[in-house]
Task: structure prediction
Amino acid sequence: MNIERPHCVIVGIGPGTGAACASRFSDEGYKVSIISRSDDRLAEFHAAIPHTMPYRADLKDSEAYREILEKIVKDHGVPRVVVHNATQSTFGRYNEIDVAKFERNFAVNATGLLVTAQVFGPKMVERGEGSIIVTGNTAATRGKPNYVGWAPTKAAQRILAEALARELGPHGVHVAYVIIDAAIDMPLARGRNGDKPDDFFAKPDDLAGEIYHVAFQPRSSWSFLVELRPFGENW
Result:
């Protein structure tokens, strides 16, 4: 008997957490819509991960992004789970940050999440269930000099996610914010931390496993703010 796979959407797929989440949900029996602004990444992960459907979108173009999300629903139905993993960053001191890039980061990190919720939230409420899991980092909880172009936008994202959790939760839709306080084990992080031992890095598959767990917590014990870090991380 051919049973239709439930639907998951990964917003922002890359070689770390995003790809690992797509693989985990695919392995668990889901069809997975994957979103990236890079055609090359979409082609790579679509070829490597079974049951994935690629969609190109740039979150800073809010209306075009909204159209892509609506197309995904039309093509594959309302997702049971959305992992909102997209991010845009700029690093530097306050007097070095380009204002246009600062505003772009807000558009991707905060406005992008709002559009995601506006499209999927009402449909999940109508169905009576769903999970929106947002990935963040410690930049969402503290401001540091070189993070001026990023931390405020991630903090806005965290507060927006909390507002969504409070509004959507009573209607059966679980919103959670997962802070990943770690260097994620992928080539870029390895290159920057070449002298670090293997257990310094957070493993993408382990992160994806915890994100999957949060997405399916029982209603009597939902989490909102979840922190993940390697055992040796200095925090």
In short: Strands lie at 7-11, 31-36, 52-56, 81-84, 130-136, 173-180, 225-228. The helical segments are 17-27, 39-48, 62-76, 99-127, 151-168, 187-192, 204-215.
